[in-house]
Each structure stands twice: as C-alpha cells, then as structure tokens.
Amino acid sequence: MMIQNDQSKIIPANYKVLISEEKIQSRLKELGEQIAAEFDGEKPILIGVLNGGFIFLADLIRFINIDLEIDFIRISSYGNERESTGHVKVLKPLSADITGRNVIVVEDIVDSGLSVKFLTNMMSAFSPKKLRFVTLLHKPTKTVVDVKIDYVGFEIEDKFVVGYGLDDEQIKRNLRNIYVIEE
Ligand code: IMP
Ligand code: MG
C-alpha cells in the first residue's frame, strides 16, 4: 500500500484533474515494459530533462526492469511565460559521455517540439548508438517542428497543465495528479 497525504491545501479551486495519479502509474508500467523490452541487455542511459521531467524519470525507471544508468540535463526555453520563446539554452550540461551509448531522453511534455528538436541535434553530435525520446505528455496540435518521439504517455489537448513535475510559474510541481487550469 502507498502512503499518501491530502494535497487539497495546495490545489486551487480552478485546477481540474486531467490525469489521475493512478492513470499515470498504470501507463508508466506499460511504457516501462516496452522500454525494457527494447533495451534488454543494453544498459541504456536515461537522460532526464530538468526541471519538469524529474518526477516522471524517477517513477518510470522503477518500471524499467533492466539495468540502466541516469543523468540529467537542464534546458530552458520558457522563463516564467506560458508560451515558448523558441530560444533553447543549456543551463546544466550532461555529465555522462553518451558517445556509443543507448540514450533515452525523458521529457515531461512536448509542446512546440523546439526542445526535442534542440536536444536531438545536440545529442546526435555525440554519436550515441541509439537515441530515443520518451515524453509523458504530448500536445500534437501545438507541435510545429518535425520531431520523432518514440514513447508517448498521453496525448492531450492544447491546454496548460500542471503537477507531477510540471510547474505553474515554478510552483505546483509536487502535486500528484496532472491538472488543467480552468480560466
Ligand atoms: P516545447 O519546446 O515547446 O516543446 O516545450 C517543452 C517544454 O515547455 C516542456 O518541457 C515544459 O517544460 C514546458 N511546457 C510546455 N507546455 C507546458 C504545460 O502545459 N505546462 C507546463 N509546462 C509546459
Ligand atoms: Mg521541460
């Protein structure tokens, strides 16, 4: 049994549950099994994209039942705005050497696709053996650049979402469910 707390004190009235914690966990189990099947015996390195991807990475790896490594990269394209500026900067570079490695980049959400495109170009330059992308959420109607995402948790509509690692002006990352903010 999981031990849980009541988070209602930090959930504003205009937040509506879009994807419950139970739905997230059961989808992670499926994704974890698929990833384990693709990478069995290959000791992949999963690269969490900070900050939004940290909870997803932490939960996902516990459903990937093979040996693996982790690293993190931090990029920024948003500042505190809700719309992409299109400018991607590396705020914390990789620590690991990914040359010749099986690399799985773990994103919280793909919106315009600019971050994934930037990461694809950046990581390809190190000549990994395999380069795969997994994202918890994808907003297909917002994606303006051509990106290849290998594993998608949930496709969602074009609405701003919060919780489970995703922030609203840096807070609310600690909410267990994913919420949509109603105006
Ligand atoms: P992209 O480069 O436009 O695809 O943006 C990806 C990044 O924008 C994600 O990794 C998030 O950090 C952020 N982002 C996009 N949509 C949302 C959202 O609905 N809620 C919170 N963060 C978001
Ligand atoms: Mg992000």
Structure in words:
By secondary structure, this protein is an alpha/beta fold. The protein has a domain at 22-35 and 42-75 and 88-158: 3-Layer(aba) Sandwich (Rossmann fold), CATH 3.40.50. The chain is built from three helices and nine strands, in the order βαβαβββαββββ. Strand 2 (45-50), helix 2 (54-61) and strand 3 (69-76) form a beta-alpha-beta unit. The protein is globular, with a radius of gyration of 16 Å.
Give the SSE map:
Elements: E1 15-19, H1 21-39, E2 45-50, H2 54-61, E3 69-76, E4 89-92, E5 102-110, H3 114-124, E6 130-138, E7 151-155, E8 161-162, E9 178-181
Parallel strand pairs: 2-3, 2-5, 5-6, 6-7
Antiparallel strand pairs: 1-9, 3-4, 8-9
Bound molecules: inosinic acid and magnesium ion.
Q: Please, what is the average pLDDT?
A: 94
Report the CATH architecture of the domain at 22-35 and 42-75 and 88-158. Answer: 3-Layer(aba) Sandwich
* Number of contiguous helices: 3
Question: Structural class from helices and strands?
Answer: alpha/beta
Distinct small molecules bound, one entry per kind: inosinic acid, magnesium ion
User: How would you describe the shape?
Assistant: globular
Strand content: 25-35%
Order of helices and strands: EHEHEEEHEEEE
Number of strands: 9
Low-confidence stretches: none
State the end-to-end CA separation.
36 Å
Helix content: 10-25%
CATH class of the domain at 22-35 and 42-75 and 88-158: Alpha Beta
Taking all Cα atoms into account, the compactness measure Rg is 16 Å
Largest sheet entry = 6 strands, mixed
What's the assembly state of these chains? single chain
Strand order of the largest sheet: 4-3-2-5-6-7
* CATH overall fold name of the domain at 22-35 and 42-75 and 88-158: Rossmann fold
